[in-house]
């Protein structure tokens, strides 16, 4: 069984490298694309979905913003299973912080220059999307194209989605990006921050082996 995987906003797959899957699973990582100028979200999702071969059964797994993307891909190319790590099933699960961005449209009016990785305030912009206490934050944060980062933050705040009850959700109980109190996850990682796939890999791997058995 092929599992197509999308990592978190700006993150490469290093944050997921410690996870172990059943031997029969073939992992295929979908790299982030840089959005085209003024590209609609559905057009971007279609480009990401083009990397998925739906001529045979497959599964989808997404982490953080990648969890949002795989749920959108599932609408275009239905998967056998969809698993999201540190992500949300619908816009109703957004935190107050993210909803404020949605209501005020602040992410949309922020200048692209604010997302330049040489700027001192980059960390302040992205820290709510990761675990600010983890010293390895920048180790995982690899995709630093300013336009991509601004676009991604906008799309997270604007995302509208009706919950699909078949989506399997795994959340950490210490996640400040997508607080567990707004969700009803299928699995809870005790002591897990937003970076739980890296810091609690054994617990997560056990769950994944149950889900994809």
Helix content: 25-40%
Note the run of SSEs as H and E: EEHEHEHHHHHEEHH
CATH fold type: Rossmann fold
Structural class: alpha/beta
How does the overall form come out from the CA principal axes? globular
- Strands of the biggest beta sheet: in what spatial order? 2-1-3-4-5-6
How many β strands by DSSP?
6
User: In whole angstroms, how far apart are the ends?
Assistant: 10 Å
Protein name: Pimeloyl-ACP methyl ester carboxylesterase
Organism: Chryseobacterium rhizoplanae
Summarize the structure in words.
The protein has 213 residues and is of the alpha/beta class. It has one domain (2-212): 3-Layer(aba) Sandwich (Rossmann fold), CATH 3.40.50.1820. Helix content is 33%, strand content 13%. The protein has helices spanning 41-49, 65-76, 96-104, 106-109, 122-126, 137-140, 146-158, 196-199, 201-211; strands at residues 2-6, 26-29, 58-63, 82-85, 168-172, 187-189. The longest helix has 13 residues, at 146-158.
List the keywords.
213 residues, Rossmann fold, 9 helices
Short description:
The chain is an alpha/beta fold. Helix 1 crosses helix 2. It has one domain: Rossmann fold (3-Layer(aba) Sandwich).
Set down the secondary structure blueprint.
Blueprint lengths: L1 E5 L19 E4 L11 H9 L8 E6 L1 H12 L5 E4 L10 H9 L1 H4 L12 H5 L10 H4 L5 H13 L9 E5 L14 E3 L6 H4 L1 H11 L2
Helix pairs in contact: 1-2, 3-7
Protein name: Pimeloyl-ACP methyl ester carboxylesterase
Organism: Chryseobacterium rhizoplanae
